[in-house]
Amino acid sequence: MNRSDFWAPEFTEQHRDDGTILMRQKGELPAYLPTLADYLDKWANEAAERTWIARRNSAGDWDTISYGEALIKAKAIGGALLAMGLGPKRPLVILSENSLEHALLGAACFYTGIPYAPLSPAYSLVSKDHGKLKDIATTLAPGAVYADDGVAFAPAFASIAAEGRAEITRNNQSDGAISFESLLSGDPALAEAARATLTGETVVKYLFTSGSTGAPKAVINTNTMICAMEAMVRDCYCFLEKSPPIVLDWAPWNHTAAGNKVSYLVFTNGGTYYIDDGRPVPGKFDETLRNLREISCNWYFNVPLGWDMLVDALKEDKAMAKTFFSGLGMMFYAGAGMAQHTWDALRELSVQTTGREILLATGLGATETAPFALACTDIQDKAGNIGLPSKGLTMKLVPTGGKMELRLKGPTITPGYYGDPDKTAEAFDEEGFYAMGDALRPADADDFSKGFFFDGRVAENFKLNTGTWVAVGAVRGALVDAMGGLVRDAVIVGENAPQLGALLLLSDKAQAMPEAERRAALTKALASAAKAATGSASKVQRVMILPNPPSFELGEVTEKGSLNQRAMRANNEDLIARLYSGDPDAIAI
């Protein structure tokens, strides 16, 4: 690892009498172009032939779009959408997954000032009643809706059909639908005229929160938010300016991590983005491995489960490991805590393969922060340090319920939720700081420059009947790590109970064991975890296996596989009662 490849931040701190702490990097955020349209013009002019985005076709070859082609097609598509009446008050909604067409539609929209909203395909393909999709359509009143496949998404189209609302598809068109191909004949002059009116405050997109506690909220994303966020990324990961980023990524663009940070990390730095049609799930991960044998990335992201699966493959395939690590500038994980054994294995493999330490890191952000906010760039012996606030942000830590609650202010913070002034007002404190709802604890209480650890969601935490607060996030992470690969995730329970318990989501390894062997292994691991705990608020003493997988419909799990602790506790009250009543299926120590 070369230290010049990453920032060397210095900070100012203010400690108030009420225990509140303000922390900010010295110096100003480096300059950035005001709109994403400026970046498309820039790279189409400076690197017209360079591939911007690529995806494998049915024959297994890579279909590519260069920056020069992207500009031409974005103008044509943008002109067609404007001619259909789309604009700031009539946005485009995209129902389907990552694709070249999805990328071009997004470029056409941000080039012409048409807001767009990429939605979770699960709202259309998994949901039975399309409830969340209907809520979103009511909020946005879109002028057009796009999906790759007209047949697969036909029920979703029907559920939000409205007079004057166009349906656009790539294939399998229904009667009255507009073909994506026809958009390429749009008038670029219309797009150029609209492009001239753009400012930093022009809305690029609406990204929706999970909606696990109600209807999804439409987070407003402006040009300034996104462009300032990528300036923070460049300031932090300096190596991205030395060579254009090369990224292979599967994560969905309806999430801020991939849809904003990763995709625009590539785009604003003139890099190349390979769409990975694999997923970190059985039956689809082979496609990811196929791609990684071919594409050598210099920045790579995955969720912890994906890293777990990738470690095993890298150990077995030395040639793939060489391709994977050879040009890598850093490895990044998010979405959940990483198990220590995975962390150790990745570091060891990177050194064995390249002879150098490759940064393995995480950070913290939210849809409302664009999302890049805190980042760690120091080599760590253990997983979990989320780092320090980015240049341009002011971090505020407020004592709340025995924890330090994180709040942020800066150019990357959303102006609010579209069509919901009440929720917008609730999200900001009296000084205009966005309240993240996350708690942090310093790695070193005497030196905040050592970074911070996630200390749980303030709303997830609860008290035992002793009045002791439980930091759910920290307890969950420690338990999953201590279970030695037997558990994919855990729901921490015990509110108003004398001791902590957990509901376990088993790993494939544990599910394959004979029942008696599995119970013995879980009991042994639980005893070991409890022995390492420091008190009643961190010691899990009883567990039960979740009989059913978490439900997306019920808001229990996100697309990235993270569990919603509150929803899981609320929806499994009977199981929790059994856990504390001496049920023979419970394991207690």
Topology:
Layout: E1 11-15, E2 21-25, H1 36-46, E3 51-56, E4 62-66, H2 67-83, E5 92-94, H3 100-112, E6 116-118, H4 122-125, H5 131-140, E7 144-149, H6 154-159, E8 166-171, E9 178-179, H7 180-183, H8 188-195, E10 203-208, E11 218-222, H9 223-236, E12 246-249, H10 256-268, E13 272-275, H11 285-292, E14 299-302, H12 304-316, H13 318-326, E15 330-333, H14 340-354, E16 359-361, E17 363-365, E18 372-375, E19 385-389, E20 394-400, E21 403-409, H15 421-427, E22 434-442, E23 452-457, E24 462-463, E25 469-470, H16 472-482, E26 487-493, E27 500-506, H17 508-511, H18 515-532, E28 540-545, H19 565-571, H20 573-579, E29 587-588
Parallel strand pairs: 3-13, 5-6, 5-7, 7-8, 8-9, 12-13, 14-15, 15-16, 27-28
Antiparallel strand pairs: 1-2, 2-20, 3-4, 10-11, 17-18, 18-19, 19-23, 20-21, 21-22, 22-23, 24-25, 26-27, 28-29
Helix pairs in contact: 1-2, 2-3, 2-8, 9-10, 12-14, 13-14
Please, could you describe this protein's structure?
The chain is of the alpha/beta class and 589 residues long. Among the domains are: 36-198, 3-Layer(aba) Sandwich (Rossmann fold), CATH 3.40.50; 237-252 and 265-361, Rossmann fold, CATH 3.40.50; 462-588, 2-Layer Sandwich (GMP Synthetase, Chain A, domain 3), CATH 3.30.300. 34% of the residues lie in helices and 23% in strands. It contains 20 helices and 29 strands. A nine-stranded antiparallel sheet has the order 1-2-20-21-22-23-19-18-17. Strand 3 (51-56) and strand 4 form a beta hairpin. Helix 1 (36-46) packs across helix 2, helix 2 (67-83) packs across helix 3 (100-112) and helix 12 packs across helix 14. The longest helix has 18 residues, at 515-532. The two termini are 44 Å apart. The mean pLDDT is 93.
